[in-house]
Write a structure and sequence with these properties.
The chain is α+β, with helices and mostly antiparallel strands and 262 residues long. The protein has helices at 3-17, 71-80, 98-105, 174-182, 203-208, 227-231, 239-259, and strands at 44-55, 128-138, 143-155, 167-173, 190-191, 201-202, 215-219. It has one domain (45-259). It is built from 7 helices and 7 strands, in the order H-E-H-H-E-E-E-H-E-E-H-E-H-H. The strands form 2 sheets. Strands 4-3-2-1-7 form a 5-stranded antiparallel sheet. A two-stranded antiparallel ribbon has the order 5-6. The longest helix is centred in the C-terminal third of the chain and has 21 residues, at 239-259.
Length: 262
Amino acid sequence: MSLKKRFFILWTWLSAIAPSYGRTDHLSQSYSPHGARPIARAYILYAKKVWRDIYLNEKQNGPCFMRGKEISKVIVEGVKNELLVPYVDETLAEIMPQAAFLKNLQISGEDASASNTVHEFFPREIAILRLVEHVIFNKITARQEYDIESIQLIVPGKNNPPTYLDHTIATFKYKDVIDYFNKLPFESVYWYNTANAAENLTWIDAFALRLFGSRIIKVDNIDDATVDELYGHTPGDGNGLIASQQLAIEIDINKEYDLFEY
């Protein structure tokens, strides 16, 4: 038996017999109150919080961004029909009022004197889905798991004149999104299989199977810095994108391989 395994067994035994002194044992609690697939802290060997941007208009993500059946459209309709609760930001601490949500949907910079009509962003203009998730190595199953905590709807800068800055519509608890999608007809929430329509999945299944393509934009760190801030020396130099790809290999592939030896 390796020294690491002996140490782990000893640590587990000591944790079980250690007195709590009237406090709740944090190891028995979930690592996140918002996790859709929470597990106890005691079962976690490794954890990292990761932010990923899914560019919905990319070919790999097309199955959930078909014209007229965009995932962004379905989510917006859920809020308008009061079936889904929006939040102000990724902390999920403050609910966004309906009026504020509708205002965020409005296109800014239009000439108010030209028309009294309020124009909203089209679903295809809300082309970024930002995931905040926990990447976890489960000691019990000896597998790496992904627990999505929240998603954000974002209008990319190119679709948001005159400022051309990314514009966040709202944030949602992913477990709320799961409950909402599960109440809708399959035809409204399916991930289209271009090779075989008989094998179409729901968006929830496709996300669980990691069928989407994404870019890591941040990994939790003490400075709360993004990948571009850490690795991009000048805007547009490509260093941030390269670093994001390297992080994806390290987190999604190499880390599970290394930890499996434990």
